[in-house]
Amino acid sequence: MITIYGKGVSAGIAAGPLCFFRHARAEVTRGAAADAETEWKRFRDARAAASEQLGALAERARATAGDEAALLFETHRMMAEDPDYEEAVAEGVRGGMSAEAALADARERFAEQFAAMDDPYMRLRAADVRDISERILAILTGAAQGGFESDTPVILAADDLSPSETIQLDKGKILAIVTEGGAEVSHTAILARAMGIPAVVGAGGCLRAAYAGHEAIVDGEDGTVVLDPDAETRARLAEKRAEQLRERERLDRLRGGASVTRDGRRVRICCNAGDPGDVAAALANGGEGIGLFRSEFLYLGREAFPSEEEQFEAYRKALCAMGDREVVIRTLDIGADKQLGYFALPREENPAMGNRGLRVCLDRPDIFRTQLRALYRASAFGRLGILLPMVASVWEVREAKELCGQVRRELAAEGAAFADDVPVGVMIETPAAALLSDRLAKEADFFSCGTNDLAQYTLACDRQNGNLGRFFDPRHIAVLRLLKLVVDNAHRNGVRVGICGELGADPQMTETLLAIGFDELSVPPNRVLPLRQRVREADAALARARLLDELTYS
Fold it and tell me: Sign of dihedral through CA atoms 144, 150, 151, 155?
């Protein structure tokens, strides 16, 4: 028996064979390039393709693991566009190097600079630079993706895993993760916790390739990996795992139940989804509906707009799968951190404050109309809600609703089937929308609060800037006051209101959100049952009394 000690970063116990991850490594050939202009174009094209891939990964991460996980990939996209990084590659190309060689040199230069910094957070950026660069290099060279081969679930071992490698793992085949490097704040740790996979990092050089195939037991709580365990160790860890499974079973009993507080307050717990595959996870975890279905997956990672038929099929499948449970589909929210080459949007100094969300759709009604036609046609197959993102003015909602009316009239003239009562909601994610919520409530059928952007705009803090640390606080009293204003205005006008941002899944905020008065919480599927238990333990009336005192006197 061999015991390897590391840092437990994601709780849980798993047993199975040890299998080592094989990294993709692009081969960089050295030598003079014939044409600098051609090499520079190759780099820019590869970087654009990498940016689209990262956008798709961000949406996948957001749906399966939450916004903190998605932020990793959104940050990578920003780093790929960094002027200093770009100039380092350009310098090499101008000096006669191939795009691959210039990029490889820039990768090493920046990774070494970050690795030498005193700040632990900044040292992590070295791994980010390598991950971004390897992705672009793989596109330039056509390198095969990394991975592992196994027909059965395994304990996955690696020197380390990049965010891209981690989020693309087949969860059905991963029992636990063990890495030589990493720390509690590493990307692997963040993603493993979000994905619910037991993980131990920082195992050092004790993790040897010769151990491949050996039976291992991983304890993601105390940070141990036991190879070829003896009977006593096996029994002790089996009992600990059994207790964890009993806790999971207790949660499973909540799967079909209602989310009602101790004082009788009822709240719906729905799921966020990033593609039709997430609908199955929502049902499996007891979600009462889809509170936010992000439609960007249809547009990302491709070279042309999705057709009406493609969109219709995707929406129809989601609605059919959910049966009589509502599916709220957000209209295209492109721009800001989600850029697509074929959209040909102009480059902006600050895209988070620029042409994004509903603004793009109103400026490009041809794109918007296609999506609306697909949505209304799909509405004949289930309970659909349409959600408009990035609203700041009443006229925007009215113009969008007018387009909805035009589409319905077109479909009626064509004899196409669609539901007559599709509610149209407004996403509250700008301070303007929050402050105008009394007027917007007269136009909208429901509200959904996107607290990530609402906090960003309210606090003047770029949520993708990790250096801001304590200054970016979604729990800030100013954000909470805006949320209470929105809920009060919604209820005065008979409009239901939910929350779909990361704040909704924070168990430390559950009582506060109930006290504010939210009717619905929409969260990643794996957080539904723990949140339902949290709701059942809460006293909404008592929390409301505390909240009013806090918002008034803090």
Answer: negative
From the candidates 19, 271, 449, 500, give the one annotated as an active-site residue. Answer: 500
Under CATH, which number does the domain 2-23+147-250 receive? 3.50.30.10
pLDDT of residue 441: 98
Closest CA to 126 of 102, 146, 110: 110
Fold of 36-141: Enzyme I; Chain A, domain 2 (1.10.274)
Query: What architecture does CATH give domain 268-553?
Result: Alpha-Beta Barrel (3.20)
The distance from CA 192 to its chain's CA centroid, rounded to whole angstroms, is 13
pLDDT at 186: 67
Q: Which helix (H) or strand (E) holds 156?
A: strand 154-158
Q: Residues 180-228: pLDDT tens digits?
A: 877 665 667 777 877 788 999 888 777 787 888 889 999 988 889 999 8
User: Which residue of the set 19, 76, 187, 449 is catalytic?
Assistant: 187
- Helical packing angle, 308-322 and 277-284, nearest 10°: 10
- The percent of residues in the chain predicted with pLDDT above 90, rounded, is 36
Q: What pLDDT digit, counting tens, does each position of 34-56 carry?
A: 788 888 998 999 998 888 888 88
Nearest to 94 by CA among 139, 141, 39, 31: 39
DSSP for 376-393, please give it.
HHHGGGS-EEEEE-S---
Q: Is the pLDDT of residue 505 over 90?
A: no
pLDDT at 118: 58
- Based on the residue annotation, tell me whether 500 is a catalytic residue of this protein: yes
Token pair recorded at residue 329: 């589909």
Burial state string for 56-83 with b = 16 or more CB within 10 A and e = fewer than 16: bbbbbbbbbbbbbbbbbbbbbbbbbeee
Task: Specify the pLDDT at position 355.
Answer: 75
CA end-to-end distance (rounded Å), the chain: 56
Q: Which amino acid is at 487?
A: V
Average pLDDT over residues 144-149: 71
187 is catalytic: yes
285 closest CA partner among 298, 272, 275: 272
